[in-house]
Amino acid sequence: EHQKAFFHLSWNILDFLILFFQFLDVVGIAGLKSARMMRVVRPLRLLSKLKSLQLLLLAMRESLVDIFNVLLLWVLSCVLFAIMGVNLFAGDFSSCNDGNFVGAPLNPSEAPGSPVGWRENCVGSFMASSNDSGESYVSDSSPTFLLLPRVWANPTDGASALSWNFDNFFIAFQTLFEVSTFEQWSDVVFVALSATQAGQQPIPQQQPGSILFFHLWVIISCFFLLQLVIGVLIEAINQRSGIALYTDTQRNWLRMRMQMSVLKPLLPDHVPRTKLRYRLWQLANSRLLLEGVTVVIILN
């Protein structure tokens, strides 16, 4: 129970458990192969040595409630923007995989060369030499065309094949989450810029004002709320370290004291006493030698 006892601190208990499992791993006792899994926690021994890391972890533990409130605010903001996105873009992101089916004759109601295409006319097959991402099926130098069916669908992520759109609330929530992580968020913005209406083929740069919706969401979710989380952690660290209770004058004094603690007095130059060593010392510290070495390095 002594204040300086080894097991008085929880960090020392963690350090002891890690060393204990490491000892079992070295001894190799039969039936304790699972102890080898504890190798992955060896870096946690640094927790008992780094006081600043301990302070950060304790501050995170004490600010969990405040961080949860910030995350709840983020979820509410995402719900609000998801509902707005459904009202603005529901059914507008879907398109035909054949971008050349627009206009007449596949769309009888449209004039030849018109950029307008309709969902009911996205039927049949077409020849394509590249996928939806613009990558050639075989080679860019020797295009190979494949016969593909026309499909009316929402855009998808090429790696995961997950669709992103605003057709319903849940997919809209997922799309906004991907945008907040900056994962292919530009693709979502470009599709929104080309959106027209449900059942119509997108037209490039048709709705330039829709970019404001995504920029506002990125500002709120990635900058404003993220700064709130950082502010909560900083406030918890200040409370834990006691800095929050100091006045401005006391904080400035602490900063000056920390800066002075790392300063070291300059040692005087040791001047050789013997004539030969003194000449060599002058040569080693002369500007001519320094410039000469620099020229040799440049020439080399």
TrEMBL record:
One of its GO terms (cellular component) is voltage-gated calcium channel complex. It is a multi-pass membrane protein. One of its GO terms (biological process) is calcium ion import across plasma membrane. Its main location: membrane. It is found in: Membrane. The keyword Glycoprotein applies. The keyword Calcium applies. GO terms for molecular function: high voltage-gated calcium channel activity. Keywords: Calcium, Calcium channel, Calcium transport, Glycoprotein, Ion channel, Ion transport, Membrane, Transmembrane, Transmembrane helix, Transport, Voltage-gated channel. Residues 4-239 form the Ion transport domain. It holds the Pfam family Ion_trans. The chain crosses the membrane at residues 13-32, 67-90, 212-234. It comes from the Eukaryota. This is Ion transport domain-containing protein. It comes from Hanusia phi. The lineage of its organism: Eukaryota, Cryptophyceae, Pyrenomonadales, Geminigeraceae, Hanusia.
